[in-house]
Amino acid sequence: MQSPKRLLTDKLLVLLILLYSSIAGIWSYKVPAVKVDPLVNGFRVSIPDEHGIKSVAFNVNRNRNFTGFEEGEFSAQVRESQDALWKYDFKRVHLRAHDTLYIWTSVQHGNAIFRDQGQPLQVCQLNGVNLPTDCLKNPNLKAESATEKRNLINRESPSTSCTKSETVMSSPPTNPLCKGQLIFEENFDQLNESRWLHDVRAPLDSTDAEFVLYDGKARVLDGQLLIEPKLWSSYRPDLHITNAQLDLSDRCTGTHNRQKECVLLTSGPHIMPPVVVPRLSTKESFAFKYGRIDIRAKLPKGDWLVPLLLLEPLMEAYGQSGYESGQLRVAMSRGNQQLRLPHGKLIDGRTIFGGAVLSTEASQREDFMVQQRRSVHFGDDFHLYSLTWSSQSLRFSIDGQEYGELLTGFAESNLNPSWRRGSPMAPFDRM
To answer: What keywords is this UniProt entry annotated with (predicted)?
Structure first.
């Protein structure tokens, strides 16, 4: 998606994990409600400590609701617990009797980021000896409901409470989208086949194609999506891998070249794909342009495994072959424990890549990629892989830590003259 996988505003989401992966599993951790304690000259926010918490961020607005997970009027990052609490004191803040506090919290638990916005808190309903004097003088204020106060706040003009988002959706919402608004969430409590389309096709021949057949169904187990492969011998034991013909036309989802995508025929050295793997996308249910994508996944380990978390174009406005319309990789890694290029560069599972793919040529395939290398294999644990995609840049992060950014100007590579008729972000300016 992190915490569930999340799309925070329009491109086609494709999840492709070759040979095995668990995507977007939900941990048992739930962000607790924030406790607010009035102080003599300010207030304290806190949540209980729990094994696995690494950091906590508090964001507080006074008398103004959040339109998304944005920075608050008062904000703080806490990196150590004290007295079994993750807490922060906001000082030199004068709370008033009629104030309502809106709070959202971000917790790094293990390697995942969890966010939660709690219910609004009316100051006079807080506990403690440091309440504003008016709360004590007027008991009616203490009895005033938070709902009534929230209704008053919500009557503010939309222009003051919503920063318009540049996100575009394939199915436009009734109301304008606000910056930071959540528009797509999948927790995989079950596999919703009206949302997720399973591909049935062979990849088109190219120097960058996976030597697999896309077929079969992923499954959900304990809040995790499992994408599991089969060897050809298990998929079709009646067809020999070196001498067979397979016609998938009645189920095939291919749209570019159905003769090649739907009908497989061995010939000479050309054998059937040795591996069959499920591939899922939201192609027929959801697409978007610009936003933040969070995907929590555990990548596979093993030689010859190349897991991909992708965004692919829905409209293919700049062309349908050779990445003419581009591909965005939220994350890509290799399953190998150790792997080096001939000149010595390490590219094994301790290196994660993110970026744009604009050419099938191996020499140009990583021209627009950023990377991070760690001391441990990325397949050892779940991580939160994120891409923030805007009209100005592509920013990539892992577990909330940004590791690379790509700016506009892809057309300057001269890989596709059509990009010059688009915006500076072309070809990544379309759904």
So the answer is: Immunity, Innate immunity, Membrane, Transmembrane, Transmembrane helix
Residue 10 pLDDT > 50: no
* Amino acid letter for position 123: V
pLDDT for the residue numbered 116: 86
User: Phi and psi at residue 223, in whole multiples of 5°?
Assistant: 75, 15
Residue 9 has pLDDT above 90, yes or no: no
Residues 6+ apart with CB under 8 A from 136: none
Residue 335: pLDDT above 50? yes
Q: How many CA atoms lie within 13 A of 280 on its CB side?
A: 23
pLDDT at 322: 82
- Report whether 384 contacts 309 (CB < 8 A): no
* 405: β partners: 395
Rounded alpha-carbon distances, angstroms, from residue 357 to 9, 16, 328: 22, 15, 6
Average pLDDT across the chain, whole number: 85
Shared-domain flag, residues 199 and 300: yes
For residue 290, give the 3-state DSSP assignment.
coil
Contact 130, 79 (CB under 8 A): no
**Percentage helix, strand, coil for the chain under 3-state DSSP, each rounded to 5:** 10, 35, 55
**Residue reference for tokens 């991909």:** 308
CATH number, domain at 382? 2.60.120.200
Range from 171-185, 309-323, 412-426 carrying the lowest mean pLDDT: 171-185
Structural domain that includes position 372: 5-21+189-235+249-254+275-421
Q: Give residue-wise pLDDT tens across range 271-294.
A: 999 999 999 999 889 999 999 999
409 phi-psi bin (left φ>0, alpha ψ -120 to 50, beta other) = left
Q: Under the phi-then-psi rule, with left for phi > 0, alpha for psi from -120 to 50, and beta for the rest, what region is 155?
A: alpha
